[in-house]
Amino acid sequence: MSESGLRQRIRIQTLLTSALVIANAIGAAIVLALVLVGIPTPSVLATELWWVNYIALPIYVGVAFVVGITVCTVTAVRRLQWSIREREPTPADARRTQRLPWTLTMIQATLWFIGMVGFTIMYGIVEPELIPKIIFVTGMAGLVVVSIGYILIEFTLRPVAAGLISHGFRRRKRTGLRARWVLAWIAGSAIPLVGILLVVLFGVFRDDTTKIELFIGVTVLALVGLVTGPILTILGSMSITGPIRSMQKAFGRIRSGDLDSDVAVYDGTEVGDLQAGFNDMVAGLRERERMRDLFGKHVGREVADAALAGDPRLGGTERIVAALFVDVIGSTTLAANRAPTEVVGLLNDFFAVIVDEVIGHDGLVNKFEGDAVLAIFGAPIALSDPAGSALAAARAIADRLPGAVPEISAGIGVGYGPVVAGNVGAVERFEYTVIGDPVNESARLSELAKRDPRRPLASRPAITAAARTESGADEVRNWEELDSVTLRGRPEPTVVFGGVPGPVPRTTADTPDIAGARIGGRTRR
């Protein structure tokens, strides 16, 4: 047996023994109070009853105590082997464990019943008038012991019962808070009240009962209720307030964004079900957040937020955007001369630079096409200067790549103009993309830029659009007109501008308002 298992066994034995001792001590105190003070007549201290009081009673109490503690402890340890040995419980283990509080309680009830019958006979042989008194006193005390014992045993076994809930075994329908509070009411209120009623009846039908004796009997029973009632009420309230407070703290952590806020399931009643349900809810939130994060990484944060905020459908709207296309130079040679894992590592470093700069300039990395990247500025989040942001991002990428990934160089092209932006595909599977001439133009410019990867290329519409804004005008000063070129697949020549090599400060005209964005929204000015 492991050390943790040994500690758990010692803890269970200690707590069970303490619970049984406390319950039986309360029962013994009730018996003495009622027999000697509460119902003094007929007296059990008669001389002829010496053998019952001083021989039979001590022997039975000692034997019952040892037998009760031993049988209850052995039964509990035998049924809790799965928990002590830290193994998965079987359905049979779950049934035996769930029945354990009732089993241990019935053992105690049996011992008290045997004592009630035995001592009723013993006292009745000598003094028949003692029979009602012994039955009433021992029966009442036994019910109190059974009620308090069950509650204390259930408290002791709360972590074990909660462990069953954590393993998917639901609690038994006849157990739970209702049974706990009913027993608390029986022990703390019903039994003392019934006792008071019976004492009054005894006083009425016994001519020799004085008012003082009647008053003392009622007072003792009232004190029993006043003592046991608060004890059971406090125990019951603690079983509810403790788990609720732990969940209140966990809710506070969740509100602050901490989703690692599981609560310990340590109650086998409906409260334990509530704790387990809370953990299931938090697990669902964690999974939802993980899927949201994964979704954002696949399609881009802006697209993900826009999709989650509304009801994405097929189709799109016309937008004015800047397209930035980055294509690796010599990717075939790179793959032929290096191991596949090394190529993937280099490409990841290459893409990391692009993603960082595109996001830093308020763009969207729309697609990874093998060893090429398409980024969009102005959709789905509208920008006041998409062209200026794209031009700044292009120069920043060209400036960083030689130092960050010297093994890879790339051509960078920037196009600008109207596109259709939206969801393309089928109802079952679609993606957000942009379709239009600026995308094709940026791809062709990236091919042309491979002649000198230090200088990204842009079309005249991109330069002209950027020059209309204050921030874009500052960026345009870092671009110069190079030539008029007829790009592959295009009927008209394109006036090409090249970026001036040099470090580029990361400045953006606007910070996108993601919360207020929508696909197809109007450009912010």
From TrEMBL:
SMART domains: CYCc (SM00044), HAMP (SM00304). Belongs to the adenylyl cyclase class-3 family. It is found in: Cell membrane. It is a multi-pass membrane protein. Keywords: Cell membrane, Membrane, Transmembrane, Transmembrane helix. SUPFAM superfamilies: HAMP domain-like, Nucleotide cyclase. Signal peptide: none annotated. CDD domains: CHD (cd07302), HAMP (cd06225). This is HAMP domain-containing protein. The lineage of its organism: Bacteria, Bacillati, Actinomycetota, Actinomycetes, Mycobacteriales. InterPro entries: A/G_cyclase (IPR001054), Adenylyl/Guanylyl_Cyclase_3/4 (IPR050697), HAMP_dom (IPR003660), Nucleotide_cyclase (IPR029787).
